[in-house]
Amino acid sequence: MTETSTKLDFRVLDEILETYEYKKSYLIAMLQKVQEVYRYLPEEAMTYIGEKVDGLSPATVYGVATFYAQFSLEPKGKYEIKVCDGTACHVRGSMPVLNAIRNKLNLKEGQTTCDNGLFSLEIVSCLGACGLAPVCVINDKVYPQMTSDAISMILDTLMKEEGLN
Amino acid sequence: MSEDKKTLIIEGKEVEFTNEANLLEVIRKAGMNVPTLCYRPDLTSFGACRMCVVEVEYPNGRKMINSSCTMPPEAGIKVHLNTEKVRKIRKMVLELLLANHDRECTTCDKSGNCELQRYAEEYGIKKVKQYAQREVMAPIDDSSCALVRDNNKCILCGACVRACDEHQGLQVLGFANRGSKTVVEPMAGKELAKSECINCGQCAAVCPTGALTINSTQLDDVWNAITNPEKKVVVQFAPSVRVAIGEMFGLEPGVNSTKKINAALRKIGFDLVFDTNFSADLTIMEEAHEFIDRLQNGGKLPLFTSCCPGWVRFLELQHPDMLDHLSSCKSPQGMMGAIIREYVPKYYEDIKSENLVSVSIMPCTAKKYEAKREQFKMADGRQEIDYVLTTQELGRMIKGAGIDFKTLEGEEPDSPFGKYTGAGTIFGVSGGVAEAAARTAYEVVTGETLQNVVIDDMRGTKRVKTVELDLKGTKIKVKIVNTLREAEKCMREIKEGKADYQLLEVMACPGGCINGGGQPQSCNDSNIKELRAKGLYKDDETGELRKSHENPEIKDLYAKHLEKPNSHKAHELLHTTYVNKRNDCYISVGE
Fold this sequence. Notes:
The complex is a heterodimer.
Chain A: H1 3-6, H2 10-19, H3 27-38, H4 43-52, H5 58-67, E1 79-84, H6 87-91, H7 94-105, E2 119-124, E3 136-138, E4 141-143, H8 148-161
Parallel strand pairs in A: 1-2
Antiparallel strand pairs in A: 1-3, 3-4
Chain B: E1 6-10, E2 13-17, H1 23-29, E3 53-57, E4 63-67, E5 78-80, H2 84-99, H3 115-122, E6 147-149, H4 159-166, E7 174-176, E8 183-185, H5 202-206, E9 212-214, H6 218-227, E10 232-237, H7 258-268, E11 272-275, H8 276-296, E12 303-304, H9 309-318, H10 332-347, E13 356-362, H11 366-371, E14 387-390, H12 391-400, H13 422-425, H14 432-446, E15 464-471, E16 474-482, H15 484-495, E17 503-507, H16 527-542, H17 552-562, H18 568-574
Parallel strand pairs in B: 1-5, 10-11, 10-13, 12-17, 13-14, 16-17
Antiparallel strand pairs in B: 1-2, 3-4, 3-5, 6-9, 7-8, 15-16
């Protein structure tokens, strides 16, 4: 990546702050917006918000960002895969599905985003769709009754769309 | 607000209450007590530690366990402070806290002064092994020359987080993560030295354990210098030290120990003992003249006082565009540092700049940082002041030297930088610098003798005071604030053009230096800082001289060496410059 593309565009952040009138009561909404743009919360963005918004500090913003599971401090993939491992999904075989994804994406232990940045993997507790167990969600699209074969095919299709294979 | 007297019953005793914020206050006012870790009377109630739980019995017979620091007092209730149930809860709280605690007590900076340690002893905690122990040790952050952060000792009471926010408005420290992973740390666990911390030490002043302590690595260096026969160690001590150090030896807060400190310092082995009060007088000479000059010749106003290193760092970090308001005068510590280097070798034959070690005793952790300022560097690369110790550290030295401070016979300081006036001594309390400056400014501007030197409106523990003065036709308005939360409001006022005052005195600690981060811990009793302030005002009242320009040693210094205030030589030695420090810290991101 080039130098400029790794740097944050603070004008984008200013726009977001402006939308929320620089009010600290909108902090969570601001962070959601930032995560939407960058697919994670860059440290510099958190510092910037903490410094610009009255009544907040970088440490306080960081505290909020690390409190909620919805915020990620690591870049997420273009495709965010959520594998449900709630009781129902677990019983109906979410682990084989998870392992299939790990293998397919070559994810090492503890790694959540694959090397090309296309996919990121997250285990969630319950998606509230137990009747469809085991469930995966990829970028808001729900995939019911998953098996290791089914998820492999889905990932293959997505990779093909991205011109990989 | 209703002032009606209502009553409740504590331990069978009928107790009146009015508008106390919580039950705990009522209990303590009634002369009784419950243990607390997270509660600090000067901060908001947090209810984190659950040590202050009491059993409350309602008129209908219902009994409840409640934390007294968060429960408003209610008429007619019966409060039991020490039932079996309550003791059991407190013991459980302590056992759980200790299980997760680094229990290396003997080498802990807080040992003997730790509230967790004390309660563990009082509640007879003998076993904590049945709970999961801390497995991985968190790294210790000793990057800051002022403070040390050790999260292995943190009980997450949040007192430091509240102090940093509610006093200073900075929120350098915050809670991060959640549940069992929660820690208190600066932004993303960064080092304190690289954060926007101003080193005031108010976090350490409210920490019940050894999680936040004063960085006392220089203590050994000072002992080494003292025992080294080649070195001549010269020491100065600040106004506020004298009214607080006695607390470490069983004296009442506010008792003036100036002469005892002189004696103790000599007994420890310091070669020359000077008084920072002398250089406080010197600061007034320089600052009052600088103020008059700015007033009469259209200089930048309002003038900001520059004695408080926490405040100076705050400006350098947060408002570098306002630095030209700041007085160019060094702080009293800085001035004394320069004077000692320049003139002690001239007065004492056996002392040369090469073998002179300059030590200062301060109520303040930020003074450690100030002494390391680039601007206080000498031509040979050394700092003018070698070591800065806090009141707490001096107390430890005195104990370590086996000196019985309480019965110690007082001694006089050394000359020629040991005499001080009442104006110098009140520097330690919020409003004191302004009052001292006004006494000198009045006489310089009007040419008349000021009869009544006390300016009552500048005194008291309020965080904001505004006083109008009439220097025989020249009207000036002075604003006095303590805590940076209030100072920040002033910065906005000035930027919006709403400031109608010409002098702004700022001290970062609540109440001023008497309540500094280096003083003996006093966070459980709001009255202590008032007693210390009274001690300084009494020192002013009972002294012979009360105006800085009447100090004979000051007159002598100008006559022999400095010529007059703000002279070329005075500027060389006693004045300094400030720099924008934003780029030292992550807050400059995006600029």
